[in-house]
Amino acid sequence: MENNCNGRQENLYETDALVSQYCEFHYGDRYFGVENYPARCARLCCEIMAERNRGAALDLGCAVGRTSFELARDFSSVTGLDFSRRFIAVATRMAEEGKIAYEIPCEGELVGHVERRLADYDLDAVRQRVTFFSGDALSLPPEFSGYDLIFAGNLIDRLKNPRLFLSSIHQRLVSGGLLILTSPYTWLNEFTPRSEWLGGFTEGGRDFTTLEGLRKSLNPHFRMLGTPRDIPFVIRETARKYQHSIAEMTIWERCR
Ligand SMILES: C[S@@+](CC[C@H](N)C(=O)[O-])C[C@H]1O[C@@H](n2cnc3c(N)ncnc32)[C@H](O)[C@@H]1O
């Protein structure tokens, strides 16, 4: 959250700057040779799910929707959900019209104008399988259930109460379904009060990592599959300023 000119708190993910950044992050150019992150995450999810039922998938914190469209290459239906109404408006426009237009900051007041089409990524044929909703991952309506896969990309460290999310998300998966998480574990008080961080602090005189926190929170209902893997991503801020981060992907199977 940030304060706007009226002193009211504004959701960062509703701002022009973040809408532009996420449009480019999802549908824009590749920077510094780093593969498109939403597409790579979806491809890994599909590879991991290759021998499993690929009926329904839920993309939580879907932003402007690229991962949802990519998942629809393999899944019969994909639901994308995000708290940001502006992100969902962009994703919905992409689903309905197959194209979006946006501005990207270059330097100072200079901007570039970009149009992107699903057809450019060979995704036009799958858009009927994707539906977007604005909503809160912490209070999902009951009909958001029965998923074979739930993907939450870079979401957990943006939630007010990640433990609440992790302790209840199994209810939305079929038995044996997978929860796939990615996160750079960038804990910030503005999103998650310090008392709710899953890890990234010392406890009892020793370092307590987010991965340990995930195991602790998910342990009753999930078992971890494989080993965590690093996935880099680059978000363009301006023509001369970029964020280069490394998320960790973990895979969790709902116990049968
Ligand atoms: C760091 S962004 C990641 C977006 C996207 N998954 C990606 O990797 O590009 C976090 C996203 O989570 C969304 N978000 C934050 N809190 C949420 C909540 N309680 N329910 C649903 N979405 C939420 C934000 O609006 C934002 O789109």
Written description of the protein model:
The chain has a seven-stranded mixed β-sheet. It is α/β, with parallel strands linked by helices and 256 residues long. It has one domain: 3-Layer(aba) Sandwich (Rossmann fold), CATH 3.40.50.150. Residues 1-8 have low confidence and may be disordered. It contains six helices and 13 strands. α5 links the parallel β8 and β9 (173-183). 23% of the residues lie in helices and 36% in strands. Bound molecules: S-adenosylmethionine (SAM).
Q: What keyword list fits this structure?
A:
Rossmann fold, binds S-adenosylmethionine, 256 residues, alpha/beta, two-stranded antiparallel sheet, disordered N terminus, seven-stranded mixed β-sheet, single chain
Write the layout of secondary structure elements.
Elements: E1 2-3, E2 9-10, H1 16-27, H2 37-48, E3 56-60, H3 66-71, E4 77-82, H4 85-97, E5 99-107, E6 110-117, E7 130-134, E8 147-153, H5 162-168, E9 173-183, E10 201-203, E11 206-208, H6 210-218, E12 222-238, E13 241-254
Parallel strand pairs: 3-4, 3-8, 4-7, 8-9
Antiparallel strand pairs: 1-2, 5-6, 9-13, 10-11, 12-13
Bound molecules: S-adenosylmethionine.
